[in-house]
């Protein structure tokens, strides 16, 4: 303790964070870095595998996509008109003559040279392996410098010799042309493993391992032979089920070969990332929004809420809005079949969308990405840019129907991390060291009864953001705690960067509180760091300050016993795990 009284915080982080790898898992992106880093690598959570199957699918789970029904379309238009009346803009089908009144431009500098970085086109990924430098290559370069160009036969020979890359990861995987022989795999979708009849459990786990191993080797420069010198901190969303957490621990300890690991929830990590102890954490990610309240650094499970929409749904809504207003160029934009289009829409959303009254327009450059062709540029005037982010409060505008949730039968967990199951006999998996992932429900049989709800489902709310925050806080029960939480709302995740979001959350949450509740004040706290990385930073702080490491799981114990029925030591849910470092932090 004398050491802790004299040590400088930066020195503590440098010394204890050099061998801690923090892994913050998301549906669209994964954030990985050493605990001593200021910011992690933020990488799209996907891998493209070379395929020779016919017919070729550009995206592994594209067959699961569902269409917008007529009823959903009517509800979407009704939601748009409700938002329009609040923002004081014309209704969806209201024709306004251009000269009837001057249009209120929210951002007219969209095509300003100073903002060109917003409008830079992306290029297709080079899917061929890099040719090694050789004396032959240098000799051909000499011939070119002497004015002797390569013959056509030589060029054709070289192109035929080039090999496709077997695996392509991260943003490069999203920028592969649909004409190339690759299939994009997204192992996590809507806050869960992306298990389906087209994407089996074993493939999901293999893809997770491949992506994480590539990041560790290529970005953090930690080869497999040295990982026994490192420990891992898994910062997981509240949406994950027990079995998913167990499988990820197996990947980290058995396959990636970390010496030890610990699991923390994003909500808890976010509290420590911003130096708080009591707060209502609203985590707005790309595909899921989750809410949980914490008191004195301990999560309150009764307050947990999950909303099945996020930033990507706002981007889809932005495209629908522009097409309806006929401001979108006549180009083939398909964010499901061409992930490159989703990247472009996300950039447009981040650059131009904000919440404020009045008409918000912007002059921007939209790019078209036709198969294998260079990007085409289309200068256009986007309109109603303040409508799509309001879908957070009116989710029927977003129509979050793309990709149904995974079959819940897969998540029936006979070895519950919260309950002792030693007295019950169930079929067990085979030896974990064989590299396979056999499970109780695999293959097509798990789709026989789809959809199936587990005994204790993770509840998804069908309400807007303000109602969900209010419901979460009121579920805590005590009026003194409720008042404190309503004044300690913390927005994290990429969507939290949306301009004008904080005052709207404060106003709409205040109006959502029932009149019989003695609460008259709501406040959203400003984040002390980038909201996208708050949970990752909190995970790093938790790992550095956890001197006792009583809740850490060691590789040998996990491989030998796992969650063994009847064993004295069981892995507990992260609600239990988080109490361990608190013993030190609160002392």
Automatic annotation (TrEMBL):
SMART domains in UniProt: ACTIN
A Pfam family hit: Actin
Organism of derivation: Dipteronia sinensis
Protein name from the UniProt record: Actin-related protein 9
CDD domains documented for this protein: ASKHA_NBD_Arp8-like
Source organism, top-level taxon: Eukaryota
Similarity comment: family membership: Belongs to the actin family. ARP8 subfamily.
Region of interest called Disordered, as start-end residue ranges on this chain: 133-157
Bias kind Polar residues: ranges: 133-151
């Amino acid at each position: 303790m004398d050491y802790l009284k004299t040590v400088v915080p930066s020195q503590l982080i440098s010394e204890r964070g050099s061998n801690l790898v923090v892994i913050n898992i998301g549906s669209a992106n994964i954030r990985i870095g050493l605990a001593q880093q200021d910011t992690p690598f933020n990488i799209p959570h996907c891998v493209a595998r070379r395929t020779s199957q016919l017919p070729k699918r550009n995206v592994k789970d594209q067959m699961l996509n569902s269409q917008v029904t007529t009823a959903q379309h009517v509800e979407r238009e009704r939601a748009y008109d409700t938002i329009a009346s609040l923002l004081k803009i014309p209704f969806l089908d209201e024709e306004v003559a251009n000269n009837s009144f001057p249009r209120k431009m929210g951002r007219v500098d969209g095509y300003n040279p100073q903002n060109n970085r917003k409008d830079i086109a992306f290029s297709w990924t080079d899917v061929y392996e890099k040719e090694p430098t050789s004396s032959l290559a240098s000799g051909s370069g000499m011939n070119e410098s002497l004015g002797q160009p390569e013959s056509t036969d030589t060029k054709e020979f070289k192109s035929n010799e080039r090999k496709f890359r077997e695996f392509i990861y991260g943003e490069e995987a999203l920028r592969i042309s649909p004409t190339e022989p690759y299939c994009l795999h997204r192992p996590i979708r809507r806050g869960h493993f992306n298990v389906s009849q087209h994407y089996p459990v074993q493939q999901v786990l293999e893809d997770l391992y491949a992506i994480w191993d590539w990041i560790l080797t290529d970005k953090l420069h930690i080869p497999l032979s040295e990982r026994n010198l490192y420990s891992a901190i898994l910062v997981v969303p509240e949406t994950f089920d027990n079995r998913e957490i167990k499988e990820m621990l197996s990947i980290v300890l058995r396959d990636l070969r970390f010496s030890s690991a610990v699991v923390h929830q994003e909500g808890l990590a976010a509290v420590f990332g911003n130096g708080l102890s009591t707060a209502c954490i609203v985590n707005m990610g790309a595909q899921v929004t989750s809410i949980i309240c914490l008191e004195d650094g301990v999560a309150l499970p009764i307050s947990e809420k999950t909303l099945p929409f996020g930033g990507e749904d706002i981007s889809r809504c932005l495209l629908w809005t522009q097409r309806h207003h006929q401001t979108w160029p006549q180009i083939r934009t398909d964010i499901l079949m061409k992930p490159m289009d989703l990247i472009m829409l996300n950039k447009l959303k981040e650059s131009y969308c904000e919440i404020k009254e009045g008409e918000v327009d912007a002059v921007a450059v939209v790019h078209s990405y036709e198969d294998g062709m260079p990007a085409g540029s289309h200068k256009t005037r986007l309109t109603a840019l303040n409508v799509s982010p309001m879908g957070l409060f009116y989710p029927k505008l977003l129509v979050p129907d793309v990709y149904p949730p995974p079959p819940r039968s897969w998540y029936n967990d006979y070895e519950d991390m919260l309950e002792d199951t030693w007295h019950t006999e169930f079929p067990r998996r085979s030896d974990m060291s064989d590299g396979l992932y056999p499970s109780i429900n695999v293959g097509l049989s798990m789709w026989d009864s789809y959809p199936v709800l587990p005994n204790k489902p993770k509840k998804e709310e069908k309400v807007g953001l303000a109602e969900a925050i209010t419901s979460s806080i009121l579920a805590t029960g005590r009026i003194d705690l409720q008042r404190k939480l309503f004044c300690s709302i913390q927005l994290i995740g990429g969507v939290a960067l949306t301009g004008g979001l904080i005052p709207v959350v404060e106003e709409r949450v205040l109006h959502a509180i029932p009149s019989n509740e003695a609460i008259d004040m709501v406040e959203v706290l400003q984040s002390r760091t980038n909201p996208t990385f708050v949970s990752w930073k909190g995970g790093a702080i938790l790992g550095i300050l956890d001197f006792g490491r009583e809740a850490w799981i060691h590789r040998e114990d996990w491989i030998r016993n796992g969650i063994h029925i009847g064993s004295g030591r069981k892995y507990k849910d992260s609600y239990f795990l988080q109490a361990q470092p608190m013993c030190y932090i609160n002392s």
